[in-house]
């Protein structure tokens, strides 16, 4: 699809400089315009998705939305959704999801994504991989020419058992792209970051493009010990981008 300027009243005027968080909020509010009463909704994770969850809660309170069921993609979103009054369920009880809304770390020109810098990629992929419509909300800083092109991490969720072995196999898979695999840690003592599923995250950094994304995806998933990776290929149906010049809506 083409990039089309949104007619939305929320488009920023060119005389105002907006913060990145304000841009995230504009994209999120635009996405919530697609939500209808009675929908089962996949609720994303992160600083952009957070604005969408808050907005859905607000519309429920105002009675402008009714009978929404949220399927949260992380414990953090679960907490937030409860706090703003969104009734929640899970994939076991609600395997059919009408619409999911979530942020992304990178979006390529074909609407392929990198996700998971927030660490919720496995639940996000399970939920967003099954929904009828998946709207991705980003500020324009997330647009890249190719995945891995921001120089930032491509996350892979792995089981903790012998993680060094798995990390080194991941790094070897992409040695032609100058890949470096690093365990994600936090705090002063470099404790391993643990996901909602009790797993670790290995972040892959590439010097050059990894080429065929589908082949890369397949080879990562073939490694025993890997739970999931952060490439979301051919999953987004719509991407809403908020930039200084306004909101653009890109459809698959
Ligand atoms: C979490 C994600 C997030 O959607 C992604 O990291 C974007 O986050 P933010 O909206 O805070 O920039 O994939 O696993």
UniProtKB/TrEMBL annotation:
Pathway(s) served: Carbohydrate degradation; pentose phosphate pathway; D-ribose 5-phosphate from D-ribulose 5-phosphate (non-oxidative stage): step 1/1
E.C. numbers: 5.3.1.6
Domain of life, source organism: Eukaryota
Family: Belongs to the ribose 5-phosphate isomerase family.
UniProt cross-references to NCBIfam families, sorted A to Z: PRK00702.1 (NF001924), rpiA (TIGR00021)
Residue ranges, compositional bias (Low complexity): 5-14
Annotated region described as Disordered, given as residue ranges: 1-14
Annotated keywords: Isomerase
Name of protein: ribose-5-phosphate isomerase
InterPro entries: NagB/RpiA_transferase-like, Ribose-5P_isomerase, Ribose5P_isomerase_typA_subgr, Ribose5P_isomerase_type_A
Catalytic function, reaction form: aldehydo-D-ribose 5-phosphate = D-ribulose 5-phosphate
Principal EC category: isomerase
A single MF term (Gene Ontology): ribose-5-phosphate isomerase activity
Keyword DNA-binding assigned: no
A biological process from GO: pentose-phosphate shunt, non-oxidative branch
Claim: Ion transport is one of the keywords in the record: no
Gene source species: Acacia crassicarpa
